[in-house]
Target: Aminotransferase class V-fold PLP-dependent enzyme
Amino acid sequence: MDIERLRADTPGVGHVIHFNNAGAALMPRPVIEAVTDHLHREARFGGYEAAGQQAQALEDVYTAIGRLINAQPAEIAVIENATRAWDMAFYSLPLRPGDVVLTSTTEYAGNYIPYLQLQRQRGIELRIIPNDEHGQVCLAALKTLLDDERVALVSLPVIATNGGPVQPIEQIGALTRAAGKLFLLDACQGVGQMPLDVQKIGCHMLAATSRKYLRGPRGMGFLYVEQSLCQTLEPAFLDLHAASLLTAQTFAIRDDARRFENWECNVAAKLGLGAAVAYALTQGIEPMWLRIQGLASHLREQLAAVLGVTVQDRGALRSGIVTFTHRTTSATQLQQWLAGQARPINVSTSRVGSTLLDMQQRDLPEISRASLHAYNTHAEIEALVQALHRLPGG
Ligand SMILES: *Cc1c(COP(=O)(O)O)cnc(C)c1O
Model:
């Protein structure tokens, strides 16, 4: 990979050492331009007229996302964030009393709360798939759980928001398909970081966000729904974009995945998402994934040598999200200390509330999260490690 080029494309690297790519990555120039150019067009020509001029570019967003995850453009809906994209799929599933949903200990609270809501409202049952010795979904346990005919859905994140294992999603998908059950994948931390191919994974639905490893603008995301399933899923919400009013008594829902969208959206951000996907495809997802894994394992080795620091990551396969704790300094204080360096170092803090089961199981109230992207460097990692060495009382 041409790292110099990657950094030259990223104005933010001149100001901060950015290790919060799992929160929101630094946007590359083509994304910034796609968004700002469109805002200028809206100011100049009017919002509807500007969107009309960009009609083809807006269609290309679906094609690009389709290429990224190996799906058809008609299987993609562009939705304002991953949570809403996920919700549109989840709340459309015809789950009935007694239906079982299987998830992992690494599930994101934003998805877990809807499970509990449907448990209360519709009487579904939630079961947690046990982990294996690596802290990831135990495939043998999943296979046994899938024997229960009441299982309707397997739903989990490929990578948790607080790091940890890259789940064996292709094996999970194969088992789930073989059992004839639906698989909803939360790909928020995977998209833009690692290769994701919905055909290989065998997921029926996938939700993702724009601002994380994809490096797109905030307030954007997308949903994939497999063509054959799409037409059988009735969205929980409909509007005049998802459906059309035929007579005073009848309406028809669109055939494609855009039935999960709604009419009004941030057009500039949608174009920005398209530019981010195109940029990622140009860099090559495979080389980026190798680079990210290399940087992350280097950081883990360096952190392990800092007195008082414990690396908290688990998993047979690990991602660019590196998590750690310090013996005497809280993650919140660490984040502040690093942000206050002459050249600010951005890390974030993952708290128990975002991945409750996992954090409680490991007895961790909070952890520091340094999430690396391909544009990060060994020199930046060194700066982080040195700043930790200088920690007062560390
Ligand atoms: C960030 C994240 C989400 C939520 O994405 P939004 O775009 O903020 O809605 C969901 N799941 C995981 C694993 C995440 O990391």
In short: The chain has 15 helices and 17 strands. The CA atoms of residues 338 and 387 lie 7 Å apart. Residues 285-304 form the longest helix (20 residues).
